[in-house]
Amino acid sequence: MASSALRSLWAEPRPTNAPDRGPRDWALVAALVGWSVVEVVFRQDLAPRPLLLLYVLAVLGPLLWRRTHPLVAVAVCFGTLTIVDVVRIVAGSQGAPLNSTAAALILAYALFRWGSGREAASGLGVILLWLPITTVADPTSLADTVGAYGFFLFAAALGAAIRYRAKIRIRDIDHAKAREREQLARELHDTVAHHVSGIAIQAQAGRAIAASHPEGAIEALAIIEDAATRTLTELRAIVGVLRASQDTEFAPQPGVAEVEQLATDGPARPCVEVTLSGEFDDLSPAVGAAIYRLAQESITNARRHARHATQVTVAVTGDADQVRLTIDDDGSAAGGRAPAGYGLVGMRERASLLGGTFHAGPAAERGWRVEAVLPRTGTPR
What we know:
Sensor_HK_TwoCompSys, ATP-binding, nucleotide-binding, Heat Shock Protein 90, 11 helices, histidine kinase
């Protein structure tokens, strides 16, 4: 079991979302350069200037590539430091290195945060090779030596822990999106099943009356044609939306009309007020169901997370090409509602699948606002 765990760690790939160097990286290097200059000016117990220059270049240069090339950065940094310390030992050079070289801890962190399993193991070997050599070049007490090992191991463990946490969060976000895709596919499936049931009934009726009432059969064919067109539209929407095998109920899904049922006027707080305006005829059932689900989820979030909220306002507006949903609450800004919550991830995914947009965040004056705009046809992306 232990060997299996080690093989799994060894085969761990690099994270796919490693950011490239940016202004913060240059600011970090500039701050460390300033620290090094201050040390050179005010400290008297330093090693010769050429060695100090090698120390600084070995540590500061690789910092710029610590996320995109973590093993190369560690190898360049600690390989150079190892060579410099070996030269100091052989030449008997006196003087201490700069304290700013402690920034090499950042590379140990980056190695386990952004490197693959093989890179982390190889880079850790380079670091552990350098540590005993530098303790010989700069003799220290046993406590200081143990502390040095502890600092580097802690930096490596911190990088691994944050990497694991980020991996778990990415997995949870993917699960939230998958659940929303599945729920949307179920609703589309139920809508299609409802249309197909109507087609079958109309076909049976038309067949029964075809001989005695030809005009009734023609009317039934027109109804079948309309229902078949709607069914094909919904089937196209299902394509691209992954769906797990689950039991479904062959019944129409709630739509825009059912949003009014979310309104409340009792003593419970917050009170929910719903306003519908515009045209909602010929609205895609998938869009109608999405509007209902988004409103329902937003109201639930307001009740759970909006501190001191007394009013939730839901407004649905139907235009010629799109439907707009806006939910506002008057809760405290200190409600602790994070835009990265998995419920919001699911709502954003649902809107995106139907070709719409979604936004959630603090309102201009007070409270929280959720806005979604969906095309009437619900064209998936």
